[in-house]
């Protein structure tokens, strides 16, 4: 494949405009139609391409945000894949791929190989196998129009940026989806936000190599700028001084262990001795009261019985 290097000065407040994408929520970045060959409308390639792009759209709701497929045979065979940004939801990924598949056919009509990037997804197809192959071209450079300015030490900014990118590369190369995002410490203009990502069909070492190459592009691409984006088919990096990705939710606090049972309430009398709780008093007073009632009942029974006996004796004596 011929090597393409695209220098683009893109203001992020006024992105390259297309009537088709004006009302869409996905930010168009760039596209490249490879000048190797074109197809004719009466061949099998366009129908295979449509089937391939439709299948990608149907599979774009996968949780890993990546998919690939091939349709057809021989010279009319189509290979295609998509990649959504690692922080994107399956629903948003599917909508982005829907937009990309419609736009790429308009921007690259009759081309047998093309690629298109949005801020949240990438889609590419070719008439050759593009699976599990690291490709660092064609390449697109985009940068923010705003300069770092005199308020910040540019050398310190660049040092912080490279440090952040290297940390993200290490995390991405060891993750399951080859994606990492994060920011540096600082406030306002001093804070830098970044993302790095590779297609998951290459090896961790190839991912690290591809991303490191994109970091080495920064001085040529985006020196003195507050933001930049380097895009290739197999990997990409982006940095800004504002949050452009979806931050993960804050972790929930650890569940607290159950409190031990509260002991029975106690109090101290004026002399400092402990008083038994009301429950203890109840246990003591109930048996004592029952004994007293029983004692007086027996005495009363004996008294009544003795009195009745005397009255019976008196009645017999009178007769």
Give a short summary of the structure.
With 319 residues, the chain is α+β, with helices and mostly antiparallel strands.
Q: In words, what does this structure look like?
A:
It is a single chain. The protein is α+β, with helices and mostly antiparallel strands and 319 residues long. It has 2 domains: 131 residues, Gnk2 domain, C-X8-C-X2-C motif (Killer Toxin P4, Chain A); 100 residues, Gnk2 domain, C-X8-C-X2-C motif (Killer Toxin P4, Chain A). Strands 1-7-10-11-9-8 form a 6-stranded mixed β-sheet, with helices on one face. It has a 5-stranded antiparallel β-sheet with strand order 2-5-6-4-3. A two-stranded antiparallel sheet has the order 12-13. Strand 3 and strand 4 form a beta hairpin.
Question: Please, how many domains?
Answer: 2
User: What is the strand tally?
Assistant: 13
Indicate the percent of residues in helices. 25-40%
What is the beta-strand fraction? 15-25%
Question: What average pLDDT do the residues reach?
Answer: 79
List the secondary-structure elements in sequence, H or E.
EEHEEHEEEHEEHEEEEH
Which consecutive residue ranges, at least 5 long each, have pLDDT under 50? 1-23, 264-291, 308-319
Structural class: alpha+beta
Q: Per CATH, which architecture of the largest domain?
A: 2-Layer Sandwich
Physical arrangement of strands within the biggest beta sheet: 1-7-10-11-9-8
Tell me the quaternary state: single chain
CATH homologous superfamily of the largest domain?
Answer: Gnk2 domain, C-X8-C-X2-C motif
Give the CATH class of the largest domain: Alpha Beta
Number of helices: 5
Distance between the termini: 145 Å
Biggest sheet statistics: 6 strands, mixed
| Radius of gyration, taken over Cα atoms and rounded to an integer in Å | 41 Å
CATH topology of the largest domain: Killer Toxin P4, Chain A
Task: Tell the overall outline.
Answer: elongated
């Amino acid at each position: 494949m011929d090597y393409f290097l695209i220098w683009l000065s893109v203001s992020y407040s006024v992105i390259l405009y297309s009537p088709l994408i004006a009302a869409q929520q996905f930010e168009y970045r760039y596209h490249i139609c490879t000048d190797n060959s074109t197809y004719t409308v009466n061949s099998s390639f366009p129908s295979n391409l449509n089937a391939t792009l439709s299948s990608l759209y149907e599979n774009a709701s996968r949780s890993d945000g990546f998919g690939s497929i091939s349709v057809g045979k021989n010279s009319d065979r189509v290979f295609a894949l998509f990649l959504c940004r690692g922080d994107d939801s399956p629903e948003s990924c599917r909508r982005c791929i829907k937009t990309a598949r419609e736009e790429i056919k308009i921007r690259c009509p009759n081309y047998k190989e093309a690629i298109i990037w949005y801020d949240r997804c990438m889609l590419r197809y070719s008439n050759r196998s593009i699976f599990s192959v690291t490709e660092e071209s064609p390449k697109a450079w985009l940068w923010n129009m705003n300069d770092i300015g005199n308020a910040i030490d540019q050398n310190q900014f660049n040092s912080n940026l490279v440090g952040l990118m290297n940390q993200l590369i290490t995390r991405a190369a060891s993750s399951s989806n080859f994606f990492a995002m994060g920011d540096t410490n600082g406030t306002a203009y001093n804070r830098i936000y970044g993302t790095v990502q590779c297609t998951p069909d290459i090896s961790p070492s190839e991912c690290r190599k591809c991303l490191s190459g994109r970091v080495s592009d920064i001085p040529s691409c985006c020196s003195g700028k507050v933001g930049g984006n380097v895009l290739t088919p197999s990997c990409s990096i982006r940095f800004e001084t504002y949050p452009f990705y979806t931050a993960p939710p804050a972790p929930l606090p650890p569940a607290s262990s159950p409190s031990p049972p509260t002991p029975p309430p106690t109090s101290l009398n004026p002399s400092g001795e402990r008083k038994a709780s009301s429950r203890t008093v109840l246990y003591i007073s109930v048996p004592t009261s029952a004994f007293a009632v029983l004692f007086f009942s027996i005495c009363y029974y004996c008294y009544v019985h003795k009195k009745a006996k005397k009255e019976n004796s008196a009645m017999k004596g009178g007769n």
